[in-house]
Amino acid sequence: MKNVILTILFFTLTGTLYSQTRTIHVFVALCDNEFQGIVPVPTKIGNGKDPRLNLYWGAGYGVKSFFKLKTDDWVWVQQLESTNPFVLDRILFKHATEDVYLLADAYDGEQIKLCTENFLKAANGQNPETLWVDNQEISFGGGANLIAYIGHDGLMEFEVSINYQDIHQKPKDVIILACYSRDYFSPQIKLAQANPLVWTTHLMAPEAYTLKAALTGWIANETGTQMEERAAQAYHKYQKCGINGARNLFTTGFK
User: Would you say residue 8 has pLDDT above 80?
Assistant: First the structure.
């Protein structure tokens, strides 16, 4: 009888452990022809103050549109208000089959530096934020399990100044979909003591299908190398760039 009780207790505890809610916070710097050093795109998708049609948000392969309309893996939860006046849109999704929530913030494109700094602070575990969802309190910001950045690589044009903390916890997983993100973000990610799962070696289009593919691997507890391959396969599928070129574009870790 004692063994039966211990067995039930073991499965109860381990079941709780493995069913623990995980969270993802995505920082999106809206595409901006005027305030970012990018090759200009059509005006209606390059207005960094209008998330509705923005290339990285409301356009067909933007984060909001893609996750809401073009994948069955993620379920729309709600539109949220942000206390940050430079976050122009904030949305919450839940994975269709796993206990994983995704919060995405669309930053005014003119405020790309602020978006980048807030991403890096979160990667360092700073500025945790809690939300009440489905009668439970869940953590985002520096309290999220995975932090992602989508947009132009502003570190090509400006420097950031962040007081990083010496963390005493498991390093945050990060994904950075921006041009040459490994080259430009490496010093900051090292200072943040974060774990780069997927980032890039060359020019790229930071669209949501790549993020979705990488997150599928992360949810399945795959390695960075496996997630890197998922990202490459998705990028090749949509960009028709050749799988070898796509594989050379994405990388994992500090290699």
Answer: no
Asked if 28 and 63 touch (Cβ cutoff 8 Å), the reply is yes
CB 227 within 8 A of CB 214: yes
Bridge partner residues of 102 (DSSP)? 24, 93
Q: Which of 28, 74, 27 is nearest to 219 (CA)?
A: 74
Nearest to 56 by CA among 177, 120, 150: 150
Phi, psi angles (nearest 5°) of residue 53? -120, 10
Say whether pTM exceeds 0.90: yes
Contact by Cβ (8 Å): 81, 105: no
Do residues 73 and 211 touch, judged by C-beta distance below 8 A?
Answer: no
CA distance 23 to 216: 13
What totals of helices (H) and strands (E) does the chain contain, helices first? Answer: 7, 10
Cα gap 128→233, rounded to integer Å: 33
Residue percentage of the chain with pLDDT more than 90: 89
